[in-house]
Amino acid sequence: MAQDFQTDSRQMLGRLREAMAVESAGQARLDQITQLIAEEMRTEVCSIYLFRDEETLELCATEGLKAAAVHETRMRLGEGLVGRVGRTGKIINSADAPSEKGFRYMPETGEEIYSSFAGIPIQRLGEMLGVLVVQSKTARQYSEDEIYALEVVAMVLAEMTELGVFVGEGAALSARHQHPVLFRGATAQEGAASGHVWLHEPRVVVTNPIADDPHKEMIRLHEAIEELRVGVDRMLDTAAEGENTDQLEVLEAYRMFANSKGWMRRMEEDISRGLSAEAAVEKEQSTARARLSSVNDQYLRERLHDLDDLSNRLLRILTGQGSETGAEIPADPILIARNIGPAELLDYGRSLKGIVLEQGSVGSHAAIVARALAIPLVIHAARITTEALNGDHIMVDGDQGIVHLRPDDTVVAAFQDKIAMQAEAVERYASIRDKPAKSLDGHHVQLTMNAGLMADLPSLENSGAEGVGLFRTELQFLVRNQMPRRGELAALYSRVLDSAKGKRVVFRTLDIGSDKVLPYMKPNDEPNPALGWRAIRVGLDKPGVMRMQLQSLLRAAKGRPLSIMFPFVAQYEEYTQACFALEKAKHRERLLGHPVPEDLQVGAMLETPSLAFAPRKFFEEVGFLSIGGNDLKQFFFAADRENERVRRRYDTLNVSFLTFLERIVERCDDTNTPLSFCGEDAGRPVEAACLAAIGLRSLSMRPASIGPVKSLLRRTDLGKLRKVIHDARHRGEQSVRKSVEEFLDL
Ligand code: PEP
Ligand code: MG
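A: This is the predicted complex of the input protein with phosphoenolpyruvate.
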């Protein structure tokens, strides 16, 4: 019996394809399809509802219902049975539709005489496009086989909708991916940019959903699966050599799927019913995506993501559509990706105007690179990779975390105003570039920049920074596939010093661990990596890499002044041990006959509250201190800097934190220890003004922040601002922000 029906479903698809091959208008095609399905299914009614907008489904074609209702009958998402299928993406199959919860008949369609109802979602990769409905007078439940056949047809319809086959008059018949869409994500790098979409991984387009010859398709699928398996095995071997356990785990899951009999069987079944190999893969992928949206279990979600990735690989093998589609990158590209690594981002470099990610986190390395390159970045823009097409016009508002895809004219006009204002501000800042950051009451605040790449160095001149207050050396390690060699590093550091032209550069030694995992180092399975084996802890326990880095720095200096800073020092002894390692490196350099800088300044980052309470002797001994506000704040409030749920919960201008920072300033003043602040907050004008008011006179920030911060400092009386902070604290305010903003007239 099932076998019989399979033939029917193939026959139905065959007829569908023939109908599609004839050149005709969108509406005529839809009409023909409904007629054809009703005939093949031997049912009185077949209707196609498509989304008119995100909330409304419109009857676009019908066989059996009143013709006058076409393009007239509409329902809201969730309304009636059709609306329910549209909202949930789940099939409804009922012999007695009027008794179903939420049933509502549309009188203009004349559907009240039909008892049975089956509604099938038309969806592509988790994106709802419409609903396919069959109805009949006799009260009968459609069989599993019939429903399956309808699913296959719905899949083909989805594919055709995607290809714009039904484009015609009426909003619901306009091609997909043409409407404006607004995405609300989170901001990871401020700034506004307008440009055109460049998909990091262009999606595969299936142009041949229906196949002639199932046997041939079966062979194609098997060959592609074999290629996929070989590829996964190869990746597994490489990962095993590198002892990369995280990657191994993912690849093991890939292998499991690639060998999964269930997955294979479902795809074979799809093919035997008339789908092409790629359509079968995509059908299963759609099912997995639909499940993904309703699964909360993290482990299961990750596995479904794995399956999704694997399906993409398989589709690329089958269609021959690689990442290289031959499309030309637009002149003003805005990169769209699910997620991206720092190395891939660096490959694009400064050519990008903006970046929008579906995933990502503010503290990730991709975000750090985006910040270093001053490219507006919005993260958590859900489903943008499904919605955007290469070449679409797109506007990214990095300040609000908003993305306008295919914006309409009013949005474009408003956005252009914003960009013009931004350009004006840049010009304004350029005019004060060579002026000092001196407050109204005469305090000079040293403004330096954070860097980590050679590409950052030109900003030293453009931004008016007085030096590099933080050079994150780990970026050089993170963007490679293997550990850089000493000679390479020495050459690079030397070029950094050359480009700085005598301005001070503070090199921070390697800060790895936590979120910064080197691809070629064995990762540690730690329950809490941010509190784990990272930064100086790794440097002291595994001295080889630190020694190599210290030697590279000493050698790069070629006798010039050098500043080295150790990250994440939590207690005095760690600092003395690190200094000891530096002494040894110096000694070795001398023995080798290399010059050692006479002016060698050695400091530490204050990133854990414990160091603020270190013995006075530490403060006397340390060459300088720099507050790593990103980490210090996360440990002070016990709020993960990468966790969007808690990250913004505690204000930097919370009086507890400011009071704590004041205590550090006092201790440094007491011992004449040079102190600076180099966390992200230093680059936010209001925060920067408050830090300066409580006595921090050296701030290191992204180059793009120097102008705005300087501009505010130059029109602020720091003495008065300090009083505003004290008064707010006195009144018992939790955060001084409101009072400060009022005072600053912002
Ligand atoms: C910090 O923690 O504030 C800091 C500057 O270091 P990173 O952001 O690299 O951890
Ligand atoms: Mg830090």
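The pocket of phosphoenolpyruvate (ligand 1) is lined by residues 470, 472, 511, 607, 628-631, 678-679 (CB under 6 Å). Residues 347 and 468 are 24 Å apart (CA to CA).
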